[in-house]
Design a protein that fits this description.
Blueprint (H helix, E strand, L loop, with lengths): L4 H29 L1 H6 L20 H4 L12 H4 L419
Length: 499
């Protein structure tokens, strides 16, 4: 059955009245209970999509639900924090259109717990960081009018700023004084020189180049002690108490040093350094003569290893080639030395020089021309006035200490040709004997022996007069003392067969 209209209207009015009465009851309860309702009510506010956290738990419900209105209550911070309903941005707040919760991350603490989201902010830092709105330059900040962002690149911390030194070439200590910016550390070398005298980099203090004054000679270790400035490395440096500049002459690099043995007073114990334990110090080469003798026994120069004078022990006779092999020590030269397998000391009797040698021909009886053939400058060979012959040297020369006293074996075909060699130049000639008779006859006309000029018998064939040319008491027998006095030619009375 359908109700009358009047009945339906009355029921609607009754339901509206009941809802209003319930709302009034809630409002009255909220008004009288205030904070305790929000804290103690069994109503789960989180179901509204806006859970009450932190400071919001103790807020009076009517602060948000004005005039008992639930629907449409603002849920964004600025809906209430507008300076009317709730505290809004103070006058000192940084100018920003960003939502509150972008920086104010917690509803459980004060507004001071803020983390500004600097995304998109690349300049104008001082608009907020002025010491009033936000943290500004501290009292010990270096004096500068440059914008914050010139040095501070991080929006999370002020630390790690990289100062832009462009245009700054002096006055470093104005900031680098240990208060405003990093200054000289306690182990910095003592100096009153401006920073920029040595430090040329704006990104690191390392790599400074110190300009040494003229009066630092002999005082290097005052700074170069391993603490104030680089000192002797713990390994690789030779052991010495001498001042650095005894060897290191440059003030721009440690390299290029030249050891000053005299200045360091070194006369012995060379192997302390030249023993192979220091990579940059020369030591005995692999080709060095095998010896345990101290370096200074042979090497007397401090500028070169060359010119060493080896003191040969007494027991080296016959073993020269053990060292003198061209590798360990000087050996036979590639050219100019005679071919031999004999030990050096067979000929070289001195141990201080190769010169002054005397060839020991013992055992050599032939093949003289192997050495005496003109191919070795220091070995005598046939002189230009030697008689012409292809005969071996040893055919005539039997003495190995002198070329003199050679005995020539005359071949059978030399008859009538004696003067070819016996001309006083190639071999002994008439001019070697002032009392030889004047004659143009060939030698073998009278000299019949090939081994001696003695025993010659004058062949008077063809001579019939002028006997006194020879028989004058000078060249040949002349008139004896008892000869009868006469000027007649010998041939007038004497013949060539006998007186």
């Amino acid at each position: 059955m359908t109700r009358p209209v009047s009945t339906r209207a009355g029921a609607h009015w009754l339901n509206s009245f009941r809802r209003a009465l319930a709302l009034a009851a809630v409002c009255l309860t909220m008004a009288f209970c205030g904070q305790s309702f929000a804290q103690n009510s069994a109503f789960d506010h989180a179901k509204t999509g806006f859970p009450l956290l932190g400071a919001h738990i103790g807020v009076d419900c009517t602060s948000c639900h004005v005039n008992g209105r639930f629907k449409g209550t603002p849920q964004r911070c600025e809906g209430c924090h507008n300076g009317v309903i709730a505290i809004g941005k103070p006058v000192s707040h940084p100018p920003s259109n960003s939502r509150c919760e972008n920086c104010h991350k917690s509803a459980t603490s004060s507004f001071s717990d803020v983390q500004v989201n600097h995304t998109g902010i690349t300049s104008g830092c001082a608009a907020c960081h002025n010491g009033t709105i936000a943290l500004g330059k501290p009292d010990n900040h270096m004096a500068t009018t440059a914008p914050c962002e010139s040095c501070h690149k991080s929006t999370v911390t002020f630390a790690g700023a990289g100062f832009n030194h462009t245009g700054i070439s002096s006055g470093c200590a104005t900031c680098h004084n240990g208060t405003t910016a990093v200054g000289k550390p306690a182990n910095h070398l003592a100096t009153t020189a401006p920073c920029e005298s040595c430090h040329s980099s704006f990104t690191s203090f390392a790599g400074a180049l110190f300009t040494h004054p003229a009066n630092v000679a002999g005082k290097c270790s005052t700074c170069h002690n391993g603490t104030t400035a680089s000192g002797k490395p713990t390994s690789g440096h030779i052991p010495t108490t001498a001042q650095c500049d005894i060897c290191h002459k440059g003030t721009t690099a440690f390299s290029g040093w030249v050891m000053n043995h005299s200045g360091a007073g070194i006369t012995a114990a060379c192997a302390t350094c030249h023993g192979g334990q220091f990579p940059d110090v020369l030591s005995k080469a692999s080709t060095h003569v095998p010896t345990t003798a101290p370096c200074e026994n042979c090497h007397s120069s401090f500028t070169s290893f060359a010119g060493a004078l080896f003191t040969h022990p007494a027991n080296v006779a016959g073993t020269c080639a053990t060292c003198h092999n061209g590798t360990t020590a000087t050996g036979k030269p590639q050219t100019g030395h005679i071919p031999t397998t004999a030990q050096c000391d067979t000929c070289h009797k001195g141990t201080t020089a190769f010169s002054g040698w005397v060839m020991n021909h013992t055992g050599i009886t032939a093949a003289c021309a192997t050495c005496h053939g003109g191919q070795f400058p220091d070995v005598l060979s046939k002189p230009s006035n030697h008689l012409q012959t292809t005969a071996p040297c040893e055919n005539c020369h039997t003495n190995t200490t002198s070329f003199l006293s050679a005995t020539f074996t005359h071949p059978a075909n030399v008859a009538g040709t004696c003067s070819t060699c016996h001309n006083g130049t190639t071999a002994t000639g008439k001019n070697s004997y002032p009392n030889h008779i004047p004659t143009t006859a060939q030698c073998d006309t009278c000299h019949k022996s090939m081994t001696s000029f003695a025993g010659a018998v004058m062949n008077h064939t063809g001579i019939t007069s002028n006997c006194a040319s020879c028989h004058n008491g000078v060249f040949a027998n002349g008139k004896p003392a008892g000869h009868k006095s006469t000027t007649a030619d010998c041939s007038q009375c004497h013949n060539t067969r006998g007186w």
